[in-house]
Predict the structure.
Amino acid sequence: MTIGRALLDRAAHLRDVPGILDALRSSDEVEVVVVRAGRARVQDGALVTTTPSDAGEARWALLGRRASGTPILLAVADQPTQSIDAAPAETWLSLRETGGMLDELNTELLVEAIALAGWLTDARFCPTCGRELEVRQSGWSRWCADCDREHFPRTDPAVIVAVQSEDGERLLLGANAQWKGRMYSCFAGFVEAGESLETTVHRELEEEAGVHLTALEYVSSQAWPYPRSLMLGFRATAGSERSARPDGEEIVDVRWFTRDEIGSALAGEGPVGLPGPASIARTLIVDWYERGSEST
């Protein structure tokens, strides 16, 4: 699922208000999203929130406000607490496991919560001197007292590409070695230092699939907090179908799929598995399939 205009007010103007987190944590008019080990509670198609007192010991941050004005806090919990662990284990889900069951607002909130929780957990020390960093801006920055440097949550740009044949009637997908041939998806890779997005797309397709691209078009983006990616989605056209081949390391197989085959796979009827509904890879595949279906 991709999101355009933000549905959640991140309330950035409140982050520097002195004592804002302590004040909100003592209020009964506040919602809290608890994240533990990259998972949050999801039940009946919605993200479950709790109260500050029920969240227990945690690292805290301000996620934003609902349209109603209700503040929403993040509690990054390490230790189990009686209140939140009374919930069934199957209700603690990652973004992948939600499978597109959440609406856009809940998805946006879940992505923000998991991404910020990961940074608050992993980036506790100064990368220059090793001193433990002081949390500032209601969980959105950290400051080193020794280096006098401020650190912010990191985002790593990555491209993901749906490649069609010259006539537009076939889609090239690849099987990653980690999937052991059970699933095919679009081609993706991280932007390297000094690269443009376009250069990355051409490089990744040549490296992973041996394909030279003759056309390239940006489609949309998706924040993907595993651990901190921003996926930038493209559609492209291959110059030659015959040149397609896997690199044999990261990609173990590449295959051209007809529109009928993609339609069957989207319906869960084979011939292969496709990415889940929560991913931009699925969005790109569906976009290609529907664009062609509309023109016939």
User: Anything to note?
Assistant: The first strand starts at residue 31 and ends at 36. Residues 104-122 form the longest helix (19 residues). The helical segments are 20-25, 52-55, 95-98, 104-122, 197-209, 259-266, 280-295.
